[in-house]
Design goal:
The complex is a heterodimer of chains A (248) and B (90). Chain A has 248 residues and is of the alpha/beta class. Helix content of chain A is 35%, strand content 18%. The longest helix of chain A has 19 residues. In chain B, strands 2-1-5-3-4 form a five-stranded mixed sheet, with helices on one face. Classes of the chains: A alpha/beta (248), B alpha+beta (90).
């Protein structure tokens, strides 16, 4: 049940057709895991906190640096040197004290990922490297937790939504490791992609609209173009296909 | 058979700033070979020394993923081929 204050706070979204008090109650009961408190994690966490998601667990092992501030908008000049999860939590609690923010200062590894996401309804991929994304993808499939993928580079970004057992996963289109690099990025790109991820999360929880499933959305900020590509589940996928099922 | 190859902005400098290149070919591989013939400097951006697609290159035909075995995927006159590069930042 929503309190009178909550009904007032979320009134403008509650009156969206198909959303209603029921949708807001679903958001309040939802537990969302956000992997990363950087460029993508900042808008995702901000908008999910503003929307009234019940519990947000945010995991990151880095500290705030001056070079983060062009895009990681949850961290400000006075936060340089602080742990990102602590800096993020301070802002998010000021934005909405009704949301329970759990800050975990850890690197996501193969050894801890299963425990970190346990008990959460959704996983948001706000990472900055592919190996950790693949860990999240694998654990999402194993635990049947929807995964909301986002990635950025320069003025370009991508997003897709993965419903385990039903739709193509990240590994379905994986060909092999790609070179690691110091990637270029302007803050507006993770803002766009992070907001798309947060939109997908909200729609999934509330149960409205169409999701970016079996689709890869590519955003080209330089030409201001959005292109949608169709994906298929790969029956030979090592994470969600026959090889993975036969290992069980 | 004429196929239009749509290139990501990162590769435009290899094609005299053309975003779209028209080629002939009956498979994705043949189309890429024709692209390389027209613009040889683009080859190391797409293919390894054995002619295999690099791991970060993604191919779509008429907006549909061509993965896996992209190079063998047949194409027909009027098809639109899209090359995208996998990115990793966050």
């Amino acid at each position: 049940m929503l309190t009178r204050d909550e009904q007032e706070r979320y009134d403008r979204q509650i009156i969206i057709r198909g959303f209603g008090l029921g949708g807001q109650d679903k958001l309040k009961k939802a537990r969302v895991f956000i992997a990363g408190a950087g460029g993508l994690g900042s808008p995702v966490a901000t908008y999910l906190t503003a929307a009234g998601v019940g519990v947000i667990r945010i995991v990151d092992h880095d500290s705030v640096e001056l070079s983060n501030l062009n895009r990681q908008v949850l961290h400000w000049e006075g936060d340089i040197g602080k742990r990102k999860v602590n800096s993020a939590t301070e802002k998010l609690r000021k934005l909405n004290r009704e949301v329970k923010i759990e800050a975990i200062e850890e690197m996501i590894t193969e050894a801890n990922v299963s425990q970190l996401v346990a008990g959460f309804d959704l996983i948001v991929d706000a990472m900055d490297n592919m190996p950790t994304r693949y860990l999240l993808n694998k654990v999402a499939i194993e635990k049947t937790i929807p995964l909301f993928h986002g990635v950025v580079h320069g003025f370009e970004g991508r997003a897709m939504t993965i419903i385990p057992g039903e739709t193509a996963c990240l590994w379905c289109v994986y060909r092999g490791a790609i070179p690691e690099e110091k990637f270029p990025v302007i803050g507006v790109t993770p803002a766009v992609i992070g907001c798309i991820q947060a939109t997908e999360v909200i729609k999934y929880i509330v149960g409205i609209g169409q999701l970016l499933t079996n689709k890869l959305l590519i955003y080209d900020g330089l030409n201001m173009k959005f292109t949608e590509f169709r994906l298929k589940k790969n029956p030979n996928c090592q994470h969600c296909g026959e090889p993975a099922r036969s290992k069980k | 058979m004429s196929v239009r190859i749509n290139l990501p902005p990162t590769l435009h400098s290899f094609t005299n700033n053309q975003a779209v290149v028209e080629v002939n070919g009956s498979t994705v591989g043949e189309c890429l070979n024709e692209l390389v013939r027209q613009f040889p400097r683009i080859k190391p951006m797409l293919l390894d020394k054995k002619g295999r697609l690099l791991n970060y290159v993604d191919i779509y035909v008429n907006y549909e993923s061509a993965y896996p075995e992209e190079l063998a995927k047949p194409v027909k006159d009027g098809d639109e081929l899209y090359i995208t590069l996998i990115i990793a930042g966050g």
